[in-house]
Design goal:
With 265 residues, the protein is an alpha+beta fold. The chain is built from nine helices and six strands, in the order ααααββααβαββαβα. The protein has helices at residues 3-13, 18-30, 34-48, 56-69, 84-102, 130-151, 180-184, 229-238, 253-260, and strands at residues 74-77, 80-83, 166-170, 200-205, 218-224, 244-246. A hairpin with a 2-residue loop joins strand 1 and strand 2.
Length: 265
């Protein structure tokens, strides 16, 4: 594991510890990656300023400039600008952990991993922020890895492929909560169309910020076990608002990278 990977793993495993981000930003500065360091400091600044603070506008603009200028070599995760190699390594590790936990299980909603609602901060309240959603998914992934380690079932390494499963996308801001997908999928989706949480991998804001559509600009990426593909596909087909879709049918930047790496099915 490189120094870069070690920093990233520590930060993603402790999403609320801003001191780790500042240490990492200093390290990036010292290793010729000033704009990645700046992006981290901009994100931290945005997180610390009140919504009405006039300084936010300048930080938001700079954040967008950095993302647009680096969209071919960065992907955002947990307030960090990951290189594509970093992001794919994280993805492969989480796929391996999801495969290990879901093997032979039924409901795929392990009670010890139960996450907060990904859609709303409170019932019928405002949507959660992107940062909140990233943190929810990261905390679940860390807890899943810990549970596997306790059971002696931790995967020996990163996943080389999807082990016969497929990747699924869920758009939490697009769901109409009609219950059709829940019935058709035998409960893999819940009444709000949220996929079973044992399968969650990453939460992504995928695409240039100026094209970040209100309902479809960010999404949850999941792994569906091979034994549930038929049921999940039934849920996808009956979902009228298309808030659940197979990743292979999309053309978002991260999905294109997965396709190029042979990680779509």
């Amino acid at each position: 594991m490189t120094h870069d990977d070690a920093f990233l793993q520590a930060i993603i495993e402790s999403p609320d510890d801003d001191s780790l981000r500042l240490i990492y930003a200093d390290w990036l500065d010292d290793h010729g990656q000033a704009e990645r360091a700046e992006f981290i400091r901009v994100q931290l600044g945005l997180g610390q300023l009140p919504v009405a603070d006039p300084r936010r506008a300048g930080l938001v603009l700079r954040r967008q400039e950095l993302l647009v200028s680096h969209q071919e070599d960065w992907v955002e995760q947990c307030g960090l600008a990951l290189t594509w190699d970093n992001a794919l390594a994280l993805f492969r590790r989480r796929v391996a952990e999801a495969i290990s936990l879901c093997r032979g299980q039924g409901a795929l909603r392990t009670d010890a991993l139960r996450p907060p609602d990904l859609r709303w901060e409170l019932p019928f309240g405002p949507p959660r922020t992107h940062a909140e959603r990233e943190a929810i998914v990261s905390r679940l992934a860390v807890a899943r890895a810990g549970l596997l380690a306790e059971r002696g079932e931790a995967p020996p390494g990163a996943a080389a492929d999807l082990a016969g499963g497929r990747l699924l996308v869920f758009y939490p801001d697009a769901t109409l909560s009609d219950g059709a997908a829940e019935a058709e999928s035998g409960g893999f989706f819940d009444v709000d169309n949220v996929p079973a949480w044992d399968t969650w991998l990453l939460y992504l804001r995928d695409g240039p910020p100026e094209q970040d559509l209100r309902c479809y600009g960010s999404y949850l990426l999941c792994w569906v076990p091979p034994g549930l593909l038929g049921l999940a596909d039934g849920g996808v087909r009956v979902n009228p608002e298309e808030c659940v879709r197979w990743a292979v049918d999309l053309e978002a930047p991260f999905i294109r990278r997965l396709r190029a790496a042979g990680l779509l099915a």
